[in-house]
Every structure is written in structure tokens, then in C-alpha cells.
Amino acid sequence: RETGVVQNQAVALANLGVLCWHSAARSLGERFLLKAAQVFSERPPVDWGKDFIEVLLQLGCCYANGVCKEEARCCYEWAFLVAIEKDHLEGQFQAVWYLCQFYSTVFPDAVQCLLYNEYQLSLLKKMPNKVLEGQVLETISRLYLSLGTER
Question: Cβ–Cβ contacts within 10 Å for residue 47, how many?
Fold first, then answer.
């Protein structure tokens, strides 16, 4: 804050949050990450980028590991929207990966999981990772089978 560079303040808060979270001071870590997200969100969208996406994903993980499942989903979706807004493919992929995990393990919903896996596959076609693309195709196939539908 002393240097007047708000982006650096937000990144420093996020780093403190992650350190606290991994040091078992989870409540404190969550508060630092929440403050970092607030600082980023108060900036104009032109200033948003991969750091903001990462903060939202980390905050989502904090919430997903606790009792705030809805807040976790919101953080992941917000990160996804920021990544789309910034046309950040890696950020989109990360956010969609977390959403796939969320809807497969934290808050099981096969239809939502399928939708996000389909989007993840479309992103992977733009990235040179055929192994991961094959894994996502297998997941999509399993989801269609579990829903009793054919692709």
C-alpha cells in the first residue's frame, strides 16, 4: 500500500493468505485472500489478469474445503468469467478444471460436470496436450453413460 501500487498490494495479500492457509491458519488465510479479491475487484477490469484469476481460484479452494460450498462455486465461476473477459486461455482452463472438480466431488452434479468438461475439451483443442484431451474425452464418455444418454 505504501508504494501506491494496488496490484502489488493485492498480490501481497494473496501470498499472505496462501501462506496462512497452508500453515493451518485457515480462517486468517481466507480473510487475506478475500481482501485480495476485494482489492482486485475494485480495480477497473482492464487491470484484471492472471493474478486476479489465481486469487479467485485459491479463495474458491478455501471455501470448497470448508462449509461454504456456494461461495466456492461463485469464486470459480467468477475466475472463469474474468479469464474469458481477458481472453486468457490458461486461466479459463484452470477455472474450468476447478469447476469440473467441484461438480464431480464437492457438489456432485453430473450435468454441470458434463457441461464444464465439454468446455474444457474445447479449450484443450486449442492447446497442445493430447494426453489431457484424451482423459477429458474419457470423462465425458463416462458422464454420458452415467446419465443414460449417448453422445
Answer: 13
